[in-house]
Amino acid sequence: MLCPEREENMARILSGKETASFINKRTSDTVRRLKERGIVPTLHILRVGENPADLSYERSAEKKCRGMEMEVEKTVFPEDVSGEAVLKKIRQLNEDKHVNGVLLFRPLPENLDADKIVNTLDPSKDVDSMTNLSLAGVFAGKKLGFPPCTAQACMEILNYYGIDCRGKKAVVVGRSLIVGKPVSMLLLGQDATVTVCHSRTVDLPSITRCADILIAAVGRAGMIGAEHVSEGQIVLDVGINSKPGGGICGDVDFEAVSPIAGFITPVPGGVGAVTTSVLLSHVARAAERHNGLE
Ligand code: NAP
Fold this sequence. Notes:
Strand order of the largest sheet: 1-11-8-7-5-6
Bound molecules: NADP nicotinamide-adenine-dinucleotide phosphate
Largest sheet: 6 strands, parallel
Helix content: 25-40%
Structural class: alpha/beta
Shape: globular
Low-confidence stretches: none
Number of helices: 10
């Protein structure tokens, strides 16, 4: 897809929904090919507790899986589950040949040893890059697993709109292991020149204004304002923040930034809309790999 024209006085919307449809089509083709061989890609969702954000993501993943004729199963543990019970389940899933991907919601309750639990998972089933091996692959630029779905979702949007990262200055605000750091590595892998900012960064606006591509992954509603952007920039808003009256908003102040930026992802309908599609594409690819087809 060619990069769209900027509309007068408004940034062009980079649509997560359109990007997701494109990915879903690709995944459906893979699922169909697997079905012809009697293989149904299967995702197992493992949830501890009843976090509303997890439940919402889970519903979306289940709906999309079924829509694509993929199998979805789940295990739900109470908040006070023992670490041994979670580890036992993960070992079972590792052995279960028909399970291709496991999604474990994090953060886990504090009484659980998250590091041990996460790294017990077979990396070949780690469809959201939780294990150290998958993350090592992202940082080494090698296919040791799958990149984190949200970080990959940012790259899919850039790719769908034909935005070439090579030689561009990319600034990522946020350095979490789930979004900021991996997306920085993926951008670097696409030959962007990357700067990573965080809460101790001095004079953030002077850095973000120099970006060609600005990625906000902070978790603070509307924090990126007009002073942080410059004309024509490509702005990807990863933030998902609850609004006091209901609904969600991003880390970018959309009203203030869209008259300045060249391209922008909305919230909702931006990066978040692509994340579950990336997850399912990883499950389908894991099924191919498990069956020696990739
Ligand atoms: P996180 O772990 O809380 O990390 C936030 C990062 O922002 C940290 O690196 C922090 O810096 C930095 N930060 C905080 N305040 C800052 C400030 N004033 N100036 C500059 N940097 C600042 O959050 P996360 O898990 O990466 O998530 C980030 C956002 O993405 C959240 O809104 C989350 O809901 C959203 N999210 C969306 C999806 C999706 O599918 N779209 C998926 C996952 C997350 P320090 O490291 O110095 O503390």
